[in-house]
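To the team - NAP complex, inputs and output below.
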Amino acid sequence: MDYTLITGASDGIGEAAARKFATKKHNLVLVARNESKLQQLCNDLTKSQGIKAAFIVADLSQANAPIHIYEECKKRNLRIDVLINNAGVGSSGEFSGNNLKTELDIIQINCASLTALTHLFLQDMKQRNTGTIINIGSIIAFVASPYMSVYAASKHFVKIFSYSLAEECKLYNVHVMFFCPGLTTSNFMNTPANNNDWGKALTSGANAQTPNQVAGELSMAFDKKKAFHVSGSKNRGMVALSGLFPLRTIARIFAKQKQKQMSLIPQ
Ligand SMILES: NC(=O)c1ccc[n+]([C@@H]2O[C@H](COP(=O)([O-])OP(=O)(O)OC[C@H]3O[C@@H](n4cnc5c(N)ncnc54)[C@H](OP(=O)(O)O)[C@@H]3O)[C@@H](O)[C@H]2O)c1
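Output:
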């Protein structure tokens, strides 16, 4: 039986995506750290949608988590036909002042674990000559973003990895999509690493979508077999506009603007 595996499914965009794909009658494997939330979501979706739903508790900041997830799927005979690499974390603030462990966790969760899960599940998809891998990026992947430096770099990694992989995988009928939300009203900005004055300055005035809206666009992009999609029309406009300027110019303008906002330089 085929399953759609979603990482970071206990909250935010991942949870909304789980609910959306359940209405499309996808069987689900939900991955995150919060066991009780995953258990509750599985029970809810099994009852309300009549699908099969399983969960795996894993901490993707740990290097052995992807192999644990893969082996659990094998052991429980959960064949993964769609992999949605959604789990992601970030931080706001000056890099030199940020906690180094948090910065390295961003790279482990957003880049290394995503890469490992893709490598593991891709082997089986390639053999079966079918499958879909969706990597959740961000519109930050199209700019340089001082004061969110490591997070922005991690999403650039996901972008280049996804674009390249998409072409390699065409030979095996495995579809790869790079899907980019903009600011979303999830708990992403409420984590200790983001919930600070810099986080507020970086997101002030930005247009936000709800996790439900983002999941709706993800579902539409999946149905249309898109290779790339930016969620939200305003975000699509911003990404198009960003392409007109060199990354270094964007970084310079952005840094000056935020430094003024934080009174580090005169207004
Ligand atoms: N929100 C935004 O403004 C925004 C904008 C652009 C892109 N995105 C991207 O969208 C994706 C989803 O973000 P979101 O807004 O839905 O964030 P969120 O509401 O904070 O949810 C994050 C999810 O990831 C899980 N997670 C966090 N750390 C984990 C770890 N170490 N191991 C396993 N799971 C972990 C969390 O579950 P547990 O705590 O239970 O582990 C939760 O289910 C991310 O890739 C993010 O970069 C978000």
